Amino acid sequence: MYNIVNLIVFTFVHMKKSKLDQSRLLSPATLNNFLKENALFDSLSILGNSVEHRPIYSYTVGKGPKKILMWSQMHGNESTTTKALVEFWLYLKTPEAKQMRDACTFQMIPQLNPDGSDAYTRVNANTVDLNRDAIDLSQPESRILRELYQQFKPDYCFNLHGQRTIFAAGNSQIPATVSFLAPAADQDRTITPAREKVMKLIALANAMLQERIPGAVGRYDDGFNINCVGDYFTAKNTPTILFEAGHYPLDYKRVETKKHIFNSLVTMSQAIASDSIERVETAAYFEIPENKNHLRDIELYNLKKAPNGKPVLENNLLIQFKEVKKGNDIDFVPEIVAESEGLHGMQRINAQEHAALMNLFFDAEISKIENLTKSISLLSFHQFV
To answer: Structural domains in the chain?
Structure first.
């Protein structure tokens, strides 16, 4: 069993100081510089090149018989799990991780889509979603992953992604900080032996996370799509776990979320290394609530006053931040949500308490995005991002 005290020390000392946390944008150059500074870059192997001829790297840690294939940033604008994966690599090199290194061989791709990572786009340079290319294999990045899968013959796959702030854990108003999925292997969503192993691993991670972020873990719908890489690998009888790094309140750089992904990687890998999966019940997986997409970033309420001067409580406006690359960073640009029925704001602001903001509303100018942006700056919304 790994030493939990040393894991906590690693998490709060090393990870807190990581330069990777400065922005949601994680370009290949930034990642490579970090790896060089931490004496990790020379351990990389080049698997091939992206559409724009950027190298796609992998690294191998461990010498055990249980083989685990991990890849991140298949979608280029989902950088949080890449940061967690690099931190996991650093942890694997510590004495406390010796058991995992002896029991497992880890093959990891930190950025499968380096072009999308550089541009901060979901798709690759050919505007193709690599997670819908499992059958066609139309893109070089997809072919690289498939070739490594066939060569490495993993016993487990960890498919690492990120999700938007709109997702809640079930019907609650708690954002899903971490979400998981045991992908289906067929249209009937049969619980195959491969899926059963994944469900147990997710149940273990969820039990750990509930002690840290109670009520903030979600589960994705398991509708089958053979074009998705996780579904394809599961159909090939390889247990494949989908990780989704979500939102922690006010953590728009996702520093806190990264820690929970990291701890999930450690928990699952330790369970595989120690053969402790079988004692877990799959029923615990189905107790995790399914994700719902009814959250938005900000809710302004009490926008108008009735003739008697009292607030009109039901009068509100929802705002969602759009992530836009600007130079070497990401801007969070506020946009008005057109349809708000059934939606909830994670941060609720009483507009009546902000005179400057209210002047914009009374001038009937709030429908203009430039005035919305102005009003947000007046409220110092940068504190949220």
So the answer is: 4-292 (3.40.630.10), 295-384 (no CATH)
